[in-house]
Amino acid sequence: MKAYKLQFVMYDPSESTEPDKYMAEIPALPGCRVWGDSPEETMDILQDVAAGIIETHVERGYELPDEVKDALIASEKSNELVVAV
């Protein structure tokens, strides 16, 4: 397993995004944009979609964007632990 630390943007519900939904996206990962009913739900969906996009790129042999490759913080051979406080 690999871990990536990617920047995301969260938008509150609005007429320009979706009146009743939060929207989040990872600008470095084209197509990674999601909507949810709460910030927590939106982040859960974003995590799943980002993982799916990265896994698909790897499985099909597509090159990941440089910003995503540079965001790799841990791999299965790593003894690193990421802790957020």
Number of strands: 5
Question: How would you sum up the major sheet?
Answer: 3 strands, antiparallel
Rounded to an integer in angstroms, the radius of gyration calculated over CA atoms is 14 Å
Mean pLDDT: 88
> What proportion of the residues is helical, as a percent range?
25-40%
CATH hierarchy class name? Alpha Beta
Distance between the termini: 23 Å
Plain-language structure description:
This protein has 85 residues and is α+β, with helices and mostly antiparallel strands. It is 31% helix and 19% strand. It has a three-stranded antiparallel beta sheet with strand order 2-3-4, with helices on one face.
Based on the model shown, name its key terms:
single chain; 85 residues; alpha+beta; Double Stranded RNA Binding Domain; three-stranded antiparallel beta sheet; two-stranded antiparallel ribbon; 2 helices; 5 strands; elongated
Compose a concise summary of this entry.
By secondary structure, the chain is α+β, with helices and mostly antiparallel strands. Helices cover 31% and strands 19% of the residues.
